[in-house]
Amino acid sequence: MRVGVLTGGGDCPGLNAVIRGIVRKGVQEYGYDFTGFRDGWRGPLEGDSIQLDIPAVRGILPRGGTILGSSRTNPLKVDNGIRRIKENLAKSEVDALIAIGGEDTLGVAATLSDDHGVPCVGVPKTIDNDLSATDYTFGFDTAVNIATEAIDRLHTTAESHMRVLVVEVMGRHAGWIAIHSGLAGGANVILIPEQPFDVDQVCAWVTSRFKASYAPIVVVSEGAKPKDGDMVLKDGSLDEFGHVRLSGVGEWLAKEIERRTGKEARTTVLGHVQRGGTPSAFDRWLATRFGLHAIDAVREGDFGKMVALRGTDIVRVPIAQATAQLKTVDPKLYNEVGVFFG
């Protein structure tokens, strides 16, 4: 049996660990052959692939990024995209496909499996941790650790200059990175997409912090928006899945704080730093287990499913169910951390 593997969407710490887990167990225990498709869905769409074997995955566990490359290619928007993928899978003699990705990548896998008979297994990947079918996605822990370390370092410069520092972190629709890193890093204000914010209230918290002779740190998700305004966009352009490109709310908020309070404010946008570099121990552990269980699903012919973490167990859920609804921050959790605001 020959199994195809691809990694789609934004790169993420732990992708290589998944690939390694799939190949190691698939070769050693099941005697499978593996084909790696380059750059997400572009690989099977254009027939661009490499051979994956044990030597190819040796030493990649601690490496960030993905040895297969990634992209946001959407084959559902390409003329004859589904037909081309099926033809190239047949030419490569691929019997099943493991797709590692987030909402968009897995959405394509669900369509291929449920509507077009392509045997697919999904592995959830997003640093945003917003897939509802799994307790955690790999990459999230690394992103939170990186953001927390940045906040820790910014405290000293904020206090040295007695200025406001606004830290913009990733999080399009869900504020998991902001609320975890903000709480862990001792931020004085945390703003997330699920809770539109009042700029006057933010300024009041900032002013209160200065009265205590401390400089405030404001952590804001890239998808957060003010109550009386719209989401701040980078340039209004869209990716291939129709998502607007975000980034800019941190700079906008810093200017508003400075204008309204008279206090100097600066912005740090962590951006792609959050998902680059070596994965944390937890992400290596989780990604490896996902890979092992994904190849088990292929072995058992359990297609159209995604592996997911529930407690400490790895389970399988329908891919379509896993991508149907995003997992967002519960208002109760946001209220819980609000005691530290201001």
TrEMBL record:
Site feature: Important for catalytic activity: K125
* Location (main, coarse): cytoplasm
The entry's keywords: Cytoplasm, Glycolysis, Kinase, Magnesium, Metal-binding, Transferase
Q: What reaction does this enzyme carry out catalytically?
A: beta-D-fructose 6-phosphate + diphosphate = beta-D-fructose 1,6-bisphosphate + phosphate + H(+)
GO-annotated cellular components:
6-phosphofructokinase complex
Q: How is its activity regulated?
A: Non-allosteric.
**Pathway where this protein functions:** Carbohydrate degradation; glycolysis; D-glyceraldehyde 3-phosphate and glycerone phosphate from D-glucose: step 3/4
Q: Where is the active site?
A: D128 (proton acceptor)
Gene Ontology MF annotations: 6-phosphofructokinase activity; AMP binding; ATP binding; diphosphate-fructose-6-phosphate 1-phosphotransferase activity; fructose-6-phosphate binding; identical protein binding; metal ion binding; monosaccharide binding
Cofactor(s) listed: Mg(2+)
**Entries under InterPro entries matching the protein:** ATP_PFK (IPR022953), ATP_PFK_prok-type (IPR012003), Phosphofructokinase_CS (IPR015912), Phosphofructokinase_dom (IPR000023), Phosphofructokinase_III (IPR012829), PKF_sf (IPR035966)
Per its UniProt record, what PROSITE patterns does this chain match? Answer: PHOSPHOFRUCTOKINASE
Q: Where does substrate bind?
A: T126, I127, D128, R163, M170, G171, R172, E222, R266, H272, V273, Q274, R275
Q: Which Pfam families match?
A: PFK
Which residues of this UniProt protein bind Mg(2+)? E103
Q: Which terms does the UniProt entry file under GO BP? A: canonical glycolysis; fructose 1,6-bisphosphate metabolic process; fructose 6-phosphate metabolic process
Which superkingdom, per the lineage?
Answer: Bacteria
Q: Where is this site: Important for catalytic activity and substrate specificity?
A: D104
Q: What is its EC number?
A: 2.7.1.90
Give me the residues that bind diphosphate, please: G10
Domain (Phosphofructokinase) spans 2-298
This molecule's function is given as: Catalyzes the phosphorylation of D-fructose 6-phosphate, the first committing step of glycolysis. Uses inorganic phosphate (PPi) as phosphoryl donor instead of ATP like common ATP-dependent phosphofructokinases (ATP-PFKs), which renders the reaction reversible, and can thus function both in glycolysis and gluconeogenesis. Consistently, PPi-PFK can replace the enzymes of both the forward (ATP-PFK) and reverse (fructose-bisphosphatase (FBPase)) reactions.
Family of this protein: Belongs to the phosphofructokinase type A (PFKA) family. Mixed-substrate PFK group III subfamily.
Name this polypeptide is given: Pyrophosphate--fructose 6-phosphate 1-phosphotransferase
| Organism the protein comes from | Streptomyces flaveus
